[in-house]
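Q: I'm writing a short explainer about DUF1501 domain-containing protein for a general audience and would like to include a description of its predicted shape. Could you first generate the structure from this sequence?
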Amino acid sequence: MSIIWNRREFLQRASAATMAALAAGAPVSSILSSCKGKSGSDSSADTVILLWMAGGMAHTETFDPKLYTPFEKDMEGNRVLSTFKSVPTILDGIHFSDGLQSIGKVMDKGTLIRSYVAADMGHILHSRHQYHWHTCYEPPQTVAAPHMGSWIAKELGPKNPVIPAFVDIGQRFTVGEAEELKAFHTAGFLGNEFGPFFIPDPSQGLDSVRPPVGMDAKRFERRNQLYNELINNSPVGEFGSDYQRESLKRSMEQAYALLNSPESKAFDLSTEPKESYNIYNTGKFGLGCLLARRLTEQGARFISVTTEYEPFKGWDTHENGHTRLEDMKKQIDGPIAQLIKDLDKQGLLDRTMVVLASEFSRDMMVEGKPDAKVLEQVQQPDILSELKFYGMHRHFTDGGSMLMFGGGIKKGFVYGKTADERPCKTIENPIKIDGVHQTIYHALGIPEDTQYEVEKRPFYTTPDGKGKAVMELLS
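A: Of course. Here's the predicted structure. Afterward I'll give you a sentence or two in plain language.
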């Protein structure tokens, strides 16, 4: 019988894991010397850009369209498989949902995955599935599991010592399930220096690397000294290890170095040529893609750009699914396509892996999976009397789409398949999260048995070290 975790239980266990990570001290590495990712001969990628479609992107409305059924008042909901027409891509016989034509034109440079299957974790919570996607571990854990970006930052280090190895663009913690989102935006037991450098608003990215207005260098330096004092008097200082305390201090030193470097100009989007800026300027996510490109040029190692999860907004289409997706596609289509083209033109795409993903998909009628349905969370009528019910509103975990470009990924390739009739579930080559993570790690040259000893047991990049790279995705 599946355990149903509610929001409070999730937070309690996440907080306990954080304190356990502090008490654990420095993780003991068993294989640091065998990590060969730093040498180009054992890897096909140096950098990863994660384009995170937070909230549950419906595969049948985006990259895996089914039969289009236009809205009619009092129509049967079960008839609706896709609410958008399909349009051809550059790949023969492969169509995307209307509104994604620009991305469709660059698919000769990447791979389309149509068979992502999310985990069965009982009652579906966005934060739990997002935690699982980003860490590869199902919550709750007895220790704070590191984010994928933190694993990469730890194992490979920064490409440019001045640029933070892990940059997170677009995520705020003032909206929605803030504490739950914080639970996986962390380096966990690896130490704070490998955690994300947050840029909540890319249009104000320069503010992230300079002192507040009115603060001179001397005052900033005094704040740096105060920060060290605060560390010593914080829970980390009291309960943590020397490793944890030094990790916090190193993270501050890295920020200070960036402040005084010429690379800090990469954060200033006002210096981007107007023609290029306008293509990316579809909103916060589009400008995040622009900042990701500029940081890749300067040597960032892992960059996450999110559409940001906020309950009942964005991809979280509990109502008005069709009209909501019209807007979401306008936000992502041009910037993502331009990002791929710019990286390719500059010769960076070959060593930069770009991944587009979401925590799960959506369906109009099925919550969970056909053979593992869970508690219904949406009042969806069988007969659609209003346009607000037209769209994919329920959480669907048995099929989903991802895109991957560059960094050794095959070009013009399609992997997996879902059924053309409801339930539009995966019927060929299912891929789960441990396979996704290990494929990325493999491309970076990080061995699948990478582990640290935490609480006297090995903690791997994927659970029990069993994740296997999906070699069919790699050229």
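A: For your explainer, you could say: The chain is about 30% helix and 15% strand.
Q: Perfect, that's easy to follow.
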